[in-house]
Amino acid sequence: MRRLMRVSVGGVGQFLIVTSSWVFMMRILTSFGTQAVAGFTIALRLMHVVFLPAWGLGNAAATLVGQNLGAHKPERARRSAWQAPRANVCFMLIVTIAFMIVPELLISAFSSEPGVIAFGVQCLQIIGVGLPVFAIGMVLTQALNGAGDTMTPTALNFVCFWLVQIPLAAWLSHQAGLDAAGIAWAIMLSEALLSGLAVLVFRRGRWQKQQV
Known about the structure:
The protein is built from 8 helices and no strands. It is mostly helical. α3 runs antiparallel to α5 and α3 runs antiparallel to α6.
């Protein structure tokens, strides 16, 4: 039970960090009015639907990593973990193209308000640029979880979402004068940072010696 609790603490921490950070992000967004909130909410919900296959690939990578480490085959665990990001990047590239070409069509399916559509399109196009990069981090953080190293993704989430995303969103949207677009840029940049850090941590390979 102690081993189970030790592993689960990191998983709980990851969800708490991500969900609580969105509370502050929405607080910043509300300063730009209800249309900005509505447009961004629609865009982010569309992205969450897109993320479902990506999360599925991440869960598969976590399972394969845990299975192969349990079989004392760390090299096969590493190869398995790198297969999923490749597929995920290809999928996200298709989504990015759709977000760039027909964002108005996607947002207008949920609202006919010009202001809401404008904010939603802005959010889709800015964050959509980074989706292929996000795809890598989404899988590799799950692979680390599958190896039993749940504290490293927790630390990465804390740095990227609390120490970078929230302050950056406040600064870009208000001090830098980007308004609501600054929030979208903060999300895109912090998620890209998370992916970059996940790649560095995964390549170091300490997770291959993780003892659950």
